[in-house]
């Protein structure tokens, strides 16, 4: 099974995603501060990252740009997970290098489908 990194500043969103992912049999690493993402990627070597966009300290776009510079993240697939769900937001997220975009609120089934699609 794959290792999934979740990056979100909301404890409730972290718990919901953790539960949804664990139901699929994958393992989870959670980070609540975007500034800790690089060390988590180097330490845990996840297969996929689910990255919130609206966060304090550093937003998801900035975090993705930082990951692209990190050799340990060269094969890492990133999916944006956000309440910013307009067509423009989704297109912009994909143009930044995300492989997919999951709009909040979402269901455990949507998370499972997303994981199947990218793993």
Automatic annotation (TrEMBL):
Keywords: Phosphoprotein, Plasmid. Coiled coil: none annotated. It comes from the Bacteria. The modification 4-aspartylphosphate is found at residue 52. GO terms for biological process: phosphorelay signal transduction system. The keyword Phosphoprotein applies. InterPro entries: Bact_response_regulator, CheY-like_superfamily, Sig_transdc_resp-reg_receiver. This is Response regulator. It holds the Pfam family Response_reg. The keyword Calcium does not apply. Residues 3-119 form the Response regulatory domain.
């Amino acid at each position: 099974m794959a290792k999934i990194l979740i990056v979100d500043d909301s404890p409730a969103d972290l718990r919901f995603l953790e539960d949804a992912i664990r139901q699929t049999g994958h393992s989870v690493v959670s980070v609540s501060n975007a500034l800790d993402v690089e060390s988590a990627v180097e330490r845990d070597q996840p297969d996929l990252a689910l990255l919130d966009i609206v966060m304090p300290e550093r937003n998801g776009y900035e975090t993705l740009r930082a990951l692209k510079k990190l050799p340990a993240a060269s094969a890492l697939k990133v999916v944006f997970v956000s309440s910013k769900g307009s067509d423009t937001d989704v297109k912009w997220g994909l143009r930044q290098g995300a492989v997919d975009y999951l709009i909040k609120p979402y269901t455990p089934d949507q998370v499972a489908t997303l994981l199947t699609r990218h793993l």
